[in-house]
Amino acid sequence: VSKSGLFDLSFTHRANRRVYDFADDVSTKRHVTNTTFWVQPHRMVRLFGGFGLTTKDGEQSPLVGSDVINRVDYDHTHYHAGVRFQHQQRYLQAEYRGTDFEDNTGRFSDRTSSRVRLIAGAPLPGFERLRLSLGFQHYSHRLERHDDTLMANTVWGAAHYLCPFGTQATYSFMFDRARRTGDWVATDNIAHAFSLGRTWPARAGLTVGYRYYTNDDLFDELSSNGYYFNGWFKPIDKLTVRAGLGSEGLKIDDGRTLTGKRDRSRQYLQARWREDFGYLRARYESRRLTFDDIDSETDYSRVACDGSLMHDRYGQIILSYSYN
């Protein structure tokens, strides 16, 4: 139910039953209910929120026909509420999210979580080409039975500059400090990212980026450097070619980890031909993950294609195939 510019209310409910043996003796039932809303009392003010409940009960087995039977019975509730103020390109938003997990089997795995988030963004006064954004989040996760809590405070921000002639530059940062009950010190996660892009309208686009990340706790200090290239090109109006390449290397600056130094890379190539009655698309992608210290390497590659035929009267048909 909605009224454009005034309010929106939605409600969904679904239920399913899963059977774990051929005799239909072991099964679980699951019910999922969600509702969300927003109300706009003023053109610059929007109130929003939501509520959800997931229940599951029954008996389940890890494999069909297995003698191992596990009892399942829990209620998982999540809810959120917030307010957003916006005027032209300037905005401020505050939001609260919470969850409650209640285990009815007696395993004492009840837990709760809460999340408070503030975000804001606006162009720099007198310099409209530069847009700034900033955010803060406090997160808490508590295990009720063990009186154990994980807390994290995160700050992030970004500056986006729109240069003349279709060029844009972006810088972003993130700082996160997490601490668990009983820990001597907190764990810090810090990231900095830079990107530079150029667009030639209706013909091509290119973006290059760099990211630095570090993780520091009491015993270990890790850091990584990564880069990526993304681009697209339209040699003719009906054909669009996209390609990307990225790599990241993780090293151990202090201490040691179970798997040691890590290198990760990814690349893809895609071509799409568009007609008035449909399209045809082909894509190739590959990923590689390497751990030199333990002499381990994983390669993944995938080839896929899909196409569509559309007709205003009879509808649309989509066919796809992938191999990996």
Question: Outline of this structure?
Answer:
The protein has strands at residues 2-3, 7-19, 27-42, 45-60, 70-87, 90-103, 111-124, 127-143, 148-162, 167-180, 187-200, 204-216, 221-236, 239-254, 262-275, 278-291, 296-311, 315-323. The protein is an all-beta fold and 324 residues long.
Explain what you see.
This protein has an 18-stranded antiparallel β-sheet, with no helix packed on it. The chain is mostly beta strands. It contains no helices and 18 strands. The model has no long low-confidence stretch (mean pLDDT 91).
What is the number of strand segments?
18
- State the end-to-end CA separation: 43 Å
User: How do the SSEs run, as a string of H and E?
Assistant: EEEEEEEEEEEEEEEEEE
* Structural class determined from secondary elements: mainly beta
Give the oligomer, counting copies of the same chain as homo and different chains as hetero: single chain
Helical stretch count? 0
Average per-residue pLDDT, rounded, comes to 91
Shape: globular
Low-confidence stretches: none
Task: Summarize the amount of helix as a percent range.
Answer: under 10%
Q: Give the biggest sheet.
A: 18 strands, antiparallel
Radius of gyration: 25 Å
Beta-strand proportion: over 45%
